[in-house]
Design goal:
The complex is a heterodimer of chains A (115) and B (111). With 115 residues, chain A is mainly β. Chain A contains no helices and eleven strands. In chain A, strands 2, 4, 5, 6, 9, 10 and 11 form a seven-stranded mixed beta sheet that branches. Chain A has a four-stranded antiparallel beta sheet with strand order 1-3-8-7, with no helix packed on it. Chain B is mostly beta strands and 111 residues long. Chain B is 0% helix and 59% strand. In chain B, a hairpin with a 2-residue loop joins β6 and β7. Chain B is globular, with a radius of gyration of 13 Å. The termini of chain B are far apart. Classes of the chains: A mainly beta (115), B mainly beta (111). The interface between A and B is medium-sized, with 26 and 24 residues.
């Protein structure tokens, strides 16, 4: 079974530039998450999708971050404009079921450096 | 709000046993996960507890006490490859099932 695919693996941008990350979840997984992991910390949820609808985006800085999940499959996360404090690893995860706990499968992440 | 506490770092010797503790204070707890994360890699699932008690899976075991807001991950017969960060994460009873993570415990296994 193919895992969660993310691209790019690494990205370096200057502050105030824009950047986009792409995620392809495991086939058939209805739930998709984007997490931000700052060095030395645990992942923090940015947004959760159920199919192509947003379930939770309460921790997404909506003045600069946006995300969409086209047709309930692939997802993109965008930052515009980027700030220095956005330097982090952006992890995408997916899980198969709704309404009960199941393990989330994580992609390898995109490491963003804002200079 | 949610508060999940783990020790920042631990060191143990190859072949030994180590226990990584996690305490949590959350508004509406459902279940607790442990994930392993090697440097530069994705977190991978280790265990899940929803009821009180011990869940054993090979060299790894996880314990939960819902009344005390406490869990631990027990690693036996430590190997060098167990050097990694161990993340404690909870889910809430909101039905959304997203993971809320602690800051992680970085375990260093020494020869």
């Amino acid at each position: 079974e193919a895992g969660v695919a993310q691209s790019p693996r690494y990205k370096i941008i200057e502050k105030r530039q824009s950047v986009a990350f792409w995620c392809n979840p495991i086939s058939g997984h209805a739930t998709l998450y984007w997490y931000q992991q700052i060095l030395g910390q645990g992942p923090k949820l940015l947004i959760q999708f159920q199919n192509n609808g947003v379930v939770d985006d309460s921790q997404l800085p909506k003045d600069r971050f946006s995300a969409e999940r086209l047709k309930g499959v692939d997802s993109t996360l965008k930052i515009q404009p980027a700030k220095l404090e956005d330097s982090a690893v952006y992890l995408c995860a997916s899980s198969p079921a709704r309404g009960r706990d199941t393990e989330a499968f994580f992609g390898q992440g995109t490491r963003l450096t804002v200079v | 709000g949610q508060n999940i506490d783990q020790p920042t770092e631990m060191t143990a010797t190859e072949g030994a046993i180590v226990q990584i503790n996690c305490t949590y204070q959350t508004s509406g707890f459902n279940g607790l996960f442990w994930y392993q994360q090697h440097a530069g890699e994705a977190p991978t699932f280790l265990s899940y507890n929803v009821l009180d008690g011990l869940e054993e899976k090979g060299r790894f075991s996880s314990f939960l006490s819902r009344s005390k807001g406490y869990s631990y991950l027990l690693l036996k017969e430590l190997q060098m490859k167990d050097s990694a960060s161990y993340l404690c994460a909870v889910t809430l009873d909101t039905g959304r099932r997203a993971l809320t993570f602690g800051s992680g415990t970085r375990l260093q296994v020494q020869p």
